[in-house]
Each structure stands twice: as structure tokens, then as C-alpha cells.
Amino acid sequence: MEQQGSCLCGQVRYRLDATFSHFYLCHCQHCQKGSGSAHGANLFAMGGQVHWLQGEELLHRFTLPGSRHGRAFCSNCGSPLPYQDGALLLVPAGSLDQAPTIAPTAHLFLASRAPWEHNLAALPGFDQLPPGA
């Protein structure tokens, strides 16, 4: 299924030819550092293809030495972007311009989750910034 995505600044745009098999919320420390958040939210497709529509020259790739952890990001705004590792295509869910075609399938590495991530469902929620923020 074809989907499109982009970075935060809009200078990198891509199109995917991929059928996602998994949508993992990964709580490992590598994903926490790479996302700056409690977890990575990544879609996986074997044999999927990413086609860069614009800004490919701004794409920067990083592979953590001694591991399979890699990421790609916009060198202008830092947004995570699709990363191809051989036949495996990893797509940060937040980089898609529309909702992913599948729902999250699992949480991974819960033993590594951030200590401040527990009981988040009990916090108050707001549709916008709360008053006084």
C-alpha cells in the first residue's frame, strides 16, 4: 500500500511502497534516546521501498556501532525518517502524513521503560495547551 510522509520542516518528503507487518512501541534505551521520548513508534515492512520525493540530500543516517539500531533523520529539523536495512524497512509512525494502516501490535523492552512512563493514563488530558501553560 502506498503512503506518504515528511519531516517536521517539510523539506524532506517520501512515498512508501510497503505493507506493514508490525507496529512496535519500543521502550529500549536506544529508542528513548533516538526519539527523545518514552518510546519509539515504528512500523516494519519486509521488502518495502522508500522513494524520496524531495530533500534526499538532507537525509542523514546513523547506525549505532555494534548493533542493528539505525536511524535516519532530516539534517535540517532532526525529524526521524524511514530507515532501510537490507530488505527491512523501518518507518517512524509520526513521520507519515496520514494514519498508519495498522494499529500498534506490541510494546517491546518494557523492562527498560522510562521510570516516569508509569500510570500515564491517570494524568489529566487536554485537546490543546492547558490554561496557564
From TrEMBL:
Membrane-crossing residue ranges in chain numbering: none
Location of the CENP-V/GFA domain: 3-117
Pfam family, one: GFA
One MF term in the entry's GO annotations: metal ion binding
Keyword entries, A-Z: Lyase, Metal-binding, Zinc
Family: Belongs to the Gfa family.
Protein name: Gfa-like protein
InterPro entries, per the entry: CENP-V/GFA, Mss4-like_sf
Lineage: Bacteria, Pseudomonadati, Pseudomonadota, Gammaproteobacteria, Enterobacterales
